[in-house]
Fold these 2 entries.
Entry 1:
Amino acid sequence: MTKPIVNEDLCIGCGTCESLCPNVFKMENGKSHVVVEECGDCDCQETVDSCPVSAISLEA
Ligand code: SF4
């Protein structure tokens, strides 16, 4: 299982990750935060690939 991690220094708060995996990512104070240990619906790779600033990584 993989846990997504957001680099808040890179995140520009576009909201794409929250749109794609709303149970994992929540926008707060203009940044995305990971709120669960793992997605359950997918491996979040699409979300990782969709982040415009490559702020999301996956931890093994
Ligand atoms: S997709 Fe990337 S830049 Fe956009 S809110 Fe999520 S982590 Fe931040």
Entry 2:
Amino acid sequence: MIELNYDSCFVLYLFAWFLVLGVLWSRELWRQNVHDWALSEGCVCICDNCHSAFLLKPGETAARCSKCNEMCTVRKRY
Ligand SMILES: [Zn+2]
């Protein structure tokens, strides 16, 4: 049978904790990749008149502002 003294038990305990932390960390990284979402930049329109931002439907390039009813177009970023 394997003899365990206090030092080897402590090292084994630390190793188990690092293993648990590594598993939880990799699980969190996996969850961020799976459940991560980002708003596409082409769908955000910022009004030139009142500087309010609102969402456009995908494919739309122009819409009326919801606050001031000004005609707004999506600017392309370079
Ligand atoms: Zn506006």
